[in-house]
Amino acid sequence: MWSGILFGLGMVAFIDETIFHQLLHWHHFYDKSTTNVGLVSDGLFHAFSWFATIGGLFLFADLRRRKSLVWKRWIGGIYLGAGVFQLYDGIIQHKIMRIHQIRYVDNVIVYDVIWNVIAAGMIVVGVILTIKTNNNKRPQGVSS
Predict the structure, then answer these.
(1) What predicted TM-score, i.e. pTM, was given to this entire model?
(2) Is the pLDDT of residue 95 over 60?
């Protein structure tokens, strides 16, 4: 489960940083200072996302080696990790800490609602997939 959670968290953080920070230039990880500080914060955020992704893949490789991988649980973990990270970003970082917004426009609420609804949807999918698996470890050849 943790393998999927770390991989999902790292994957969605990487997508966020690549699309919204680098390609669209909508915001930086930390927007309460200069552009240079914002770029450094993006670099640290990018490093964090890759550490989480690589950590998740190391755990994944160990599951495969031990023949303990349950695909549905792992994919559920990906959705949970991605959704929890995105919801944390949307609520804690955007609204409570206000370290950045999704986009600096007059009608930001539209972006906030879409961002958080997608996050909640990923969490629901992750919970459903996880509930459909039990705590018994099954060999990876057995479908679940």
Answers:
(1) 0.87
(2) yes
